[in-house]
Amino acid sequence: MQFKNFVAAAALAASASALPAAQQEIKVVDSAVGLVESTANPNQAVDVPATNLKTFGLIAIRSGSPLQNQGLTALQSGLSIGRKQDANCYGETSDFATFQLNVETEELFLFNTTELSKQQFYTDRSGMGRGVLQYSNGIDTSFGKRSETKGFAINENGSLQFDGSDFLACPYGDSETEWTVSIDVGNIDPFYTGKNCTGFIAKTIETTTPVGCFYN
Ligand SMILES: *[C@@H]1O[C@H](CO)[C@@H](O)[C@H](O)[C@H]1NC(C)=O
Ligand SMILES: *[C@@H]1O[C@H](CO)[C@@H](O)[C@H](O)[C@H]1NC(C)=O
Ligand SMILES: *[C@@H]1O[C@H](CO)[C@@H](O)[C@H](O)[C@H]1NC(C)=O
To answer: Where does the record locate the signal sequence feature (predicted)?
Structure first.
């Protein structure tokens, strides 16, 4: 998605958060791009109906923190806040990651226009992984024994969660403006950096012009 759209959407979300909970839900966009075969028999059941796919960007909600209203970026197999992505968007530019959720299987992908991306998210909530959140590179899509790919969902407030958990932003190295994103499994310093991570809500933001990319 374009930066301009994203900022406008972020402002919208910020004002929306002042509304009562019932009105807070932010609509996500159904994306049917390239997912319905034009030659398909309409009476035939399709494996993944396009209406089961939601396409959106994510912004961090944690009022009073520097994370507030920042868009999530995808790079180096993970999600971050404050770090620039280096994605191949087929001639377009995209400063923030665009996601695609299969609401039926609860699987989360990066959005890649013409076909369902092979860049799929997985987490490991075991004592080994402690909520680490990564995406596959699209080539090797075999996940480890402790990896979970299913459990992503958008809640009643329009926020993405994994099995009811929100997210953590953990300081990236010594930087005070860059964070690595993981699933909040209840450990404030899951990766033993000696610095506390900050919990945040990942608000989904409608995108009417999703930009498909391959994320490096
Ligand atoms: C993204 O889409 C392009 C064009 O269809 C395709 O060549 C590529 O393999 C896809 N990449 C992933 C990671 O799905
Ligand atoms: C939705 O937002 C309201 C108000 O902020 C909050 O009380 C509630 O717990 C939220 N629901 C979920 C599922 O997070
Ligand atoms: C991390 O949080 C704990 C518990 O709130 C606190 O005692 C500790 O001082 C914090 N550590 C840092 C490095 O901020």
So the answer is: 1-18
